[in-house]
């Protein structure tokens, strides 16, 4: 056995010219042998484990930014040979595929003095050309399949086929791996396929040579593993049967062959034939001789020889414990390089591998990322959860994937090889079946000792079914068995046919991690829970959230159920069809296997039917067990969770529960909510809210507060799951042009920013009505956890379901209630939900809107105020019914105040108060989030007051442990300039901060110019004051007050900000973790402090964030080119931040401030002058912009139906209309263009933070664009149904 060999690896280095599991497997052996390794990789493989495992790694084609072209780097023989020279490589292991059987590559390495681990270039060439290999086999006395030499024309092909008889197979002479094969059952098929086969051979193998062989429909594929020393000594290591294939590619391999169990003589003949062929060509290293065996007669024929390590070599190693074929290949290569010929004969003893070991049987199953329900089409995507049981003496798993791996579309979709051995075949099958078979009680994320791969479709369920088939158990499977559809595997899944406007997976209660990681979950949790109750699920079970388009839109959400199931559809009024027949909403609906379910828009609102609403919820019995949790939730959010971290797309396959067991869970009669008790969603909404935290006269005038609640607000088309933007509806139409939207009680936000809505950053409660400049925004389930805007009011938590049904153009008015009303509202909705299970008893049901508040409420949101001459003022503010905001000191940034906030939090956490969920600390405050079911607002308030009173008066003796981290930064970068250009075209084109945020910051702070501002911005270390906002975004403040530049937030805020952008608002800077909306003034781009899957040395899977309070950040300027390279390393998980441990001493800080006091005073004086000038300018610019916007709104007083007066519209005109309300992001088409296909994109809308492509549609193909709808231009606002493009 190989383990007894003693060969020195000193002076050698191995390059692995491959990727994936085989590269990992080779490197593992090399490491055990203490042989240094070099990995090569392409851009899409930069995070792959073989790159991390190797001692050295080299990126292929580093200057090629085209992913498709870059991915071909593994075939770049000249480049790989050069790497060998540069890195002093002596050995190359090619693995399988790519260059493993490329004779030119072997010669190229030989000329460089590098040894390819495999046979000689001549043997590779001879065996690679199938017609040449057949001749060599005949010369060695090995029987071959009846066939011919290369055929050049159709005449030769048909003549041969007529001679040997049909069916025949056209084979590429240079082919392999099952590619380039075409079976022809008769002459007609041969004539039809011949030229195409030649062309495909040319495309795949750069050689159009083809030959014909007789095709045996009922055949076995059995191969013999051989190994030679290159000097004529060759042994075999037994056989492997690989008869279970799809598309001529193997999916199961086993040894010994079940076909040869009772045919020992045939086995000996085949093994001897393989050895004779090896001896005849003086084969060296590992190789495999493949045979076709007629299932009827037992006749065997040579197919081909693979002159490389076989994919399934592990099967042989599992029946010969201690054998490592890769080790033998390495030792053979080293001995050749060291001029010692090759492996000694005593290392290759046939007696060690003679007859099959009766006590061991090994089976391998290949796990592919492919969809068996769609002819095994490859399925690239993110593997959201991966679990493999640990390897042992009877279980081996060769893989390269783990949770977070992205499976590329550029390479073979093999994920893993699961190999088991057992005393006999039956036990091996049982063991493998246990590993692969799903079970009803299996939950993803809980270790059950099984194989679990969750993400895009894979073949695990199919593999498990193969193991259940009697034919396989009996060992009678042939090569055509799978392709003939004889494996009855119906996926327990549904397939998305059309994704509609937007559909996602959501669950309850969502994520409760904090740190700005959004809660997510359904926007309308009431309808969501109702749907789950109707199908018998846990109310919090995951389901679909579907945005319903307008009635005129052709967009529909449709899915195909492969197995029987039960569904319920609730929420907005929609049209639901099962196999084209109308289905009832708010009811259990039975879905048969093979049924198609579709959800369409249902039309406009009427007084007599369910109307309005935006989102529909579909519950499926038992949910989606293979959608894994991400940070403890299955909800889709900002690139994470759900299915693939995104909205559903056509072709997505989602596993559902087994159809065989669902019926026993049904309780008899199907539940249906009577129509008259189904919520009637209005277009004018009343929403109950609690005053606070900021609707007091410190921020708004008393009249302004009353006006806020008195007016109606219109839902903007720019709304989304992050926040619902509101537009003011005039209180007095005659005075509309001059009427202020919000009446502020102050001129600006002080250190918080130039606009009166600005405050020093603070925590937010879910459902807060955030005053984003002059635009109120309701913070929803994807909203930020903190920020720098005042929040006038907070929607009662039980009322937040209504937000999910706000449709753009709806109107809403907020009504103040008391905390006791909030408790009663929660009870009201819980009672309504509980009554659904009793839907047969209609008296238990009631109108969900039938709630009357007491009419009492707090005018002052301040729950308690602590004022003392020897300590900072403390204000406890109401922030809804599940949060209390605790503010310390005046609205000024003070490091000592931040220290007090930290001390307050630590004292509160030490008490372990039941019901507190988390604290969200920021500049001068902390938001205490709590569960009102576990602790009341009053009880929590009393506890917090007591804790604050227990704090010492001074915090100067506090020392905070932290770290100092270096971040690269590109100042005034192109990406942020592009974001500003987009803002100016789609949101606002004139403002004090436009066209350059940087020049504005310079003026606003009394600095000479933008260059000086940038210099100041990176001159000081920045202290992390808070971590939150979005995805653990850090809030940073310069340690040196001379560098504390201030700026207002953009008003309105941007809808797009690049990932890694760094901006400033007030005196606080933030690093944007992902692409998102934002209002900070941008001045540079750095690396984000967030990694979705925790990739990289400074992150972890359960801690995908980097920074924590009281860390210090130092920025080091880099060029855009340098940044791009660093970003690639970051994305690959290979960037390491410069980090050193440090502390922040409050005493040292106070001492430092005292030494620069005069300079700080001078800086702040110049800053105050700049702020005053810029605020005055902004006031005028804002009023001008508002006036223009009101004029635009006046002109757009009706639906767009085309150009004004309809003049010039052809009689036969057709229209492409807006499917949703939004704004025009880009007009792709132009007048005079001809529409060539239904997929031609005419216009791109921006709505709900999505780009919506408006396609031409089938009915407009061949038409000519003759104009645009009335007022249609880039940046224009449109409503659903508005005409965008006129087509003749």
From TrEMBL:
<keyword id="KW-0436">Ligase</keyword>
<dbReference type="GO" id="GO:0016874">
    <property type="term" value="F:ligase activity"/>
</dbReference>
<protein>
    <submittedName>
        <fullName>Urea carboxylase</fullName>
    </submittedName>
</protein>
<dbReference type="Pfam" id="PF02786">
    <property type="entry name" value="CPSase_L_D2"/>
</dbReference>
<dbReference type="InterPro" id="IPR005481">
    <property type="entry name" value="BC-like_N"/>
</dbReference>
<feature type="compositionally biased region" description="Basic and acidic residues">
    <location>
        <begin position="1188"/>
        <end position="1197"/>
    </location>
</feature>
<feature type="domain" description="Lipoyl-binding">
    <location>
        <begin position="1204"/>
        <end position="1288"/>
    </location>
</feature>
<feature type="region of interest" description="Disordered">
    <location>
        <begin position="1188"/>
        <end position="1212"/>
    </location>
</feature>
<dbReference type="InterPro" id="IPR005482">
    <property type="entry name" value="Biotin_COase_C"/>
</dbReference>
<dbReference type="Pfam" id="PF00364">
    <property type="entry name" value="Biotin_lipoyl"/>
</dbReference>
<dbReference type="InterPro" id="IPR003833">
    <property type="entry name" value="CT_C_D"/>
</dbReference>
<feature type="domain" description="ATP-grasp">
    <location>
        <begin position="134"/>
        <end position="334"/>
    </location>
</feature>
<keyword id="KW-0092">Biotin</keyword>
<dbReference type="InterPro" id="IPR029000">
    <property type="entry name" value="Cyclophilin-like_dom_sf"/>
</dbReference>
<keyword id="KW-0547">Nucleotide-binding</keyword>
<dbReference type="GO" id="GO:0016787">
    <property type="term" value="F:hydrolase activity"/>
</dbReference>
<dbReference type="Pfam" id="PF00289">
    <property type="entry name" value="Biotin_carb_N"/>
</dbReference>
<dbReference type="Pfam" id="PF02626">
    <property type="entry name" value="CT_A_B"/>
</dbReference>
<dbReference type="InterPro" id="IPR016185">
    <property type="entry name" value="PreATP-grasp_dom_sf"/>
</dbReference>
<feature type="domain" description="Biotin carboxylation">
    <location>
        <begin position="10"/>
        <end position="487"/>
    </location>
</feature>
<dbReference type="Pfam" id="PF02682">
    <property type="entry name" value="CT_C_D"/>
</dbReference>
<dbReference type="GO" id="GO:0046872">
    <property type="term" value="F:metal ion binding"/>
</dbReference>
<dbReference type="Pfam" id="PF02785">
    <property type="entry name" value="Biotin_carb_C"/>
</dbReference>
<dbReference type="InterPro" id="IPR011053">
    <property type="entry name" value="Single_hybrid_motif"/>
</dbReference>
<dbReference type="InterPro" id="IPR011761">
    <property type="entry name" value="ATP-grasp"/>
</dbReference>
<keyword id="KW-0067">ATP-binding</keyword>
<dbReference type="InterPro" id="IPR050856">
    <property type="entry name" value="Biotin_carboxylase_complex"/>
</dbReference>
<dbReference type="InterPro" id="IPR011764">
    <property type="entry name" value="Biotin_carboxylation_dom"/>
</dbReference>
<dbReference type="InterPro" id="IPR000089">
    <property type="entry name" value="Biotin_lipoyl"/>
</dbReference>
<dbReference type="GO" id="GO:0005524">
    <property type="term" value="F:ATP binding"/>
</dbReference>
<dbReference type="InterPro" id="IPR003778">
    <property type="entry name" value="CT_A_B"/>
</dbReference>
<dbReference type="InterPro" id="IPR005479">
    <property type="entry name" value="CPAse_ATP-bd"/>
</dbReference>
<keyword id="KW-0378">Hydrolase</keyword>
<dbReference type="InterPro" id="IPR011054">
    <property type="entry name" value="Rudment_hybrid_motif"/>
</dbReference>
């Amino acid at each position: 056995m190989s383990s007894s060999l003693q060969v020195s690896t000193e002076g050698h280095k191995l390059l692995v010219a491959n990727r994936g599991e085989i590269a990992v497997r080779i490197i593992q052996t090399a490491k055990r042998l203490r042989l240094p390794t070099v990995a090569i990789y392409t851009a899409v493989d930069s995070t792959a484990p073989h790159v991390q495992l190797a001692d050295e790694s080299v990126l292929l084609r580093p200057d090629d930014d085209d992913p498709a072209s870059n991915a071909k780097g593994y075939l770049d023989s000249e480049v790989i040979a050069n790497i060998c020279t540069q890195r002093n490589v002596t050995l190359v292991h090619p693995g399988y595929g790519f260059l493993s059987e490329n004779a030119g590559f072997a010669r190229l390495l030989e000329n460089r003095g590098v040894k390819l681990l495999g046979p000689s270039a001549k043997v590779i060439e001879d065996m690679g050309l199938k017609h040449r290999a057949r001749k060599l086999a005949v010369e060695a006395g090995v029987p071959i399949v009846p066939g011919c030499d290369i055929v050049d024309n159709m005449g030769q092909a048909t003549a041969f086929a007529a001679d040997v008889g049909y069916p025949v197979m056209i084979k590429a002479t240079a082919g392999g791996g099952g590619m380039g094969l075409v079976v022809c059952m008769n002459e007609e098929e041969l004539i039809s396929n011949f030229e195409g086969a030649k062309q495909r051979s040319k495309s795949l193998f750069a050689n159009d040579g083809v030959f014909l062989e007789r095709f045996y429909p009922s055949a076995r594929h059995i191969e013999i593993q051989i190994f030679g020393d290159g000097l004529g000594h060759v042994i075999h290591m037994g056989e492997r049967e690989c008869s279970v294939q799809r598309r001529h590619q193997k999916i199961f391999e086993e040894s010994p062959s079940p076909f040869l169990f009772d045919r020992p003589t045939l086995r000996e003949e085949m093994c001897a034939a393989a050895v004779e062929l090896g001896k005849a060509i003086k084969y060296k290293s590992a190789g495999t001789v493949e045979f076709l065996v007629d299932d009827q007669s037992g006749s065997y024929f040579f197919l081909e020889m693979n002159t490389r390590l076989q994919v399934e070599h592990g099967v042989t190693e599992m029946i010969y414990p201690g054998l490592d074929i890769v080790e033998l290949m390495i030792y053979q290569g080293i001995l050749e390089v060291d001029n010692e010929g090759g492996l000694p004969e005593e290392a290759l003893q046939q007696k060690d591998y003679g007859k099959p070991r009766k006590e061991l049987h090994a089976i391998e199953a290949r796990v592919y990322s492919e969809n068996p329900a769609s002819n095994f089409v490859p399925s690239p995507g993110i593997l959201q959860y991966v679990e493999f049981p640990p390897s042992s003496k009877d279980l081996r798993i060769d893989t390269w994937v783990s949770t977070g791996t992205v499976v590329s579309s550029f390479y073979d979709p093999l994920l893993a090889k699961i190999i088991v051995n057992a005393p006999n075949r039956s036990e091996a099958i049982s063991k493998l079946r246990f590993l692969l078979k799903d079970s009803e009680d299996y939950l993803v994320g809980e270790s059950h000792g099984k194989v679990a791969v969750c993400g895009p479709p894979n073949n695990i369920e199919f593999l498990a079914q193969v193991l259940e088939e009697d034919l396989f158990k009996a060992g009678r499977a042939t090569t055509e068995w799978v392709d003939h559809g004889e494996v009855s595997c119906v996926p327990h899944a549904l397939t998305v046919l059309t994704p509609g406007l937007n559909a996602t997976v959501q669950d309850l209660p969502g994520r409760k991690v904090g740190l700005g990681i959004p809660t997510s979950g359904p926007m309308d949790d009431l309808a969501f829970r109702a749907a789950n109750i109707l199908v018998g699920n846990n109310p919090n079970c995951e389901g679909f959230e579907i945005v319903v388009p307008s009635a005129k839109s052709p967009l529909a959400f449709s899915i195909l159920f492969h197995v029987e199931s039960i569904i319920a559809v609730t929420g907005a009024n929609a049209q639901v069809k099962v196999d084209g027949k109308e289905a009832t909403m708010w009811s259990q609906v039975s879905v048969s296997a093979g049924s198609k379910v579709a959800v369409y828009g249902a039309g406009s609102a009427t007084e007599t039917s369910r109307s309005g609403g935006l989102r529909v919820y579909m519950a499926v019995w038992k949910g989606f067990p293979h959608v894994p949790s991400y940070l403890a939730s299955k909800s889709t959010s900002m690139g994470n969770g759900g299915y693939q971290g995104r909205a559903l797309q056509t072709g997505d396959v989602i596993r559902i529960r087994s159809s065989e067991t669902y019926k026993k869970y049904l309780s008899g009669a199907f539940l249906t909510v009577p129509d008259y008790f189904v919520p009637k969603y209005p277009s004018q909404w009343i929403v109950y809210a609690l005053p606070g935290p900021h609707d007091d006269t410190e921020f708004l005038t008393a009249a302004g507060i009353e006006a806020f609640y008195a007016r109606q607000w219109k839902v903007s088309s720019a709304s989304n799951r992050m926040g619902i933007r509101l537009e003011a509806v005039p209180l007095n139409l005659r005075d509309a042009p001059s009427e202020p939207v919000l009446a502020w009680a102050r001129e600006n936000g002080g250190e918080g920013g130039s606009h009166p809505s600005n405050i020093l950053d603070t925590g937010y409660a879910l459902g807060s009505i955030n005053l984003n400049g002059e635009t109120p925004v309701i913070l929803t389930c994807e909203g930020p956890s903190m920020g720098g805007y005042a929040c006038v009011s907070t929607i009662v938590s039980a009322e937040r379901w209504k937000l999910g049904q706000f449709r753009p153009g709806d109107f809403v008015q907020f009504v103040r209630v008391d905390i006791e009303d909030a408790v009663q509202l929660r009870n009201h909705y819980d009672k309504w939900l509980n009554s659904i299970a009793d839907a047969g008893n209609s008296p238990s049901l009631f109108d969900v809107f039938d709630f009357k508040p007491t009419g009492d409420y707090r005018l002052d949101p301040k729950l308690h105020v602590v004022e003392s001459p020897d300590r900072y003022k403390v204000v406890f503010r109401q922030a809804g019914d599940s949060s209390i905001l605790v503010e310390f000191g005046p609205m000024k940034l003070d490091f000592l105040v931040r220290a007090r906030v930290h001390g307050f939090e630590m004292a509160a956490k030490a008490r372990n108060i039941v019901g507190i969920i988390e604290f969200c600390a920021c500049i001068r405050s902390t938001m205490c989030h709590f569960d009102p079911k576990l602790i009341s607002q009053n009880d929590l308030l009393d506890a917090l007051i007591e804790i604050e009173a227990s704090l010492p008066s001074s915090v100067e003796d506090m020392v905070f442990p932290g770290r100092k981290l270096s971040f690269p930064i590109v100042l005034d970068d192109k990406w942020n300039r592009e974001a500003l250009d987009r803002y100016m075209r789609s949101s606002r084109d004139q403002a004090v901060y436009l066209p350059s945020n940087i020049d504005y910051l310079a003026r606003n702070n009394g600095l000479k110019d933008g260059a000086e501002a940038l210099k100041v911005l990176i001159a000081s270390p920045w202290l992390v004051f808070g971590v939150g906002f979005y995805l653990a975004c850090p809030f940073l403040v310069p340690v040196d007050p001379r560098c504390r530049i201030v700026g207002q937030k953009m008003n309105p805020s941007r809808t797009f900000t690049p990932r890694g952008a760094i901006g400033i608002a007030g005196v606080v800077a933030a690093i944007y973790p992902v692409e998102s909306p934002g209002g900070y003034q941008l001045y540079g781009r750095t690396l984000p402090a967030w990694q979705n899957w925790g990739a990289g040395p400074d992150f972890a899977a359960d801690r995908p964030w980097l920074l924590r309070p009281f860390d210090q950040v130092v920025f080091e300027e880099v060029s855009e080119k340098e940044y791009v390279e660093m970003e690639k390393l970051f994305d690959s998980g290979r960037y390491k931040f410069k980090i050193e441990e440090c502390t922040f001493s409050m005493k040292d800080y106070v001492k430092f401030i005292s030494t620069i006091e005069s300079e700080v005073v001078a800086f702040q004086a110049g800053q105050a002058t700049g702020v005053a000038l810029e605020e005055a300018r902004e006031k005028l610019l804002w009023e001008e912009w508002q006036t223009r916007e009101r004029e635009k709104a006046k002109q757009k007083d009706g639906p767009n139906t085309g150009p004004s007066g309809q003049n010039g519209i052809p009689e036969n005109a057709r229209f492409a209309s807006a499917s949703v309300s939004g704004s025009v992001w880009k007009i792709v088409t132009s007048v005079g263009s001809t529409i060539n296909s239904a997929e031609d994109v005419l216009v791109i809308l921006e709505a709900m933070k999505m780009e919506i492509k408006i396609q031409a549609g089938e009915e407009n193909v061949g038409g000519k664009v003759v104009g645009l709808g009335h007022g249609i231009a880039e940046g224009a606002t449109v409503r659903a149904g508005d005409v965008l493009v006129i087509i003749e």
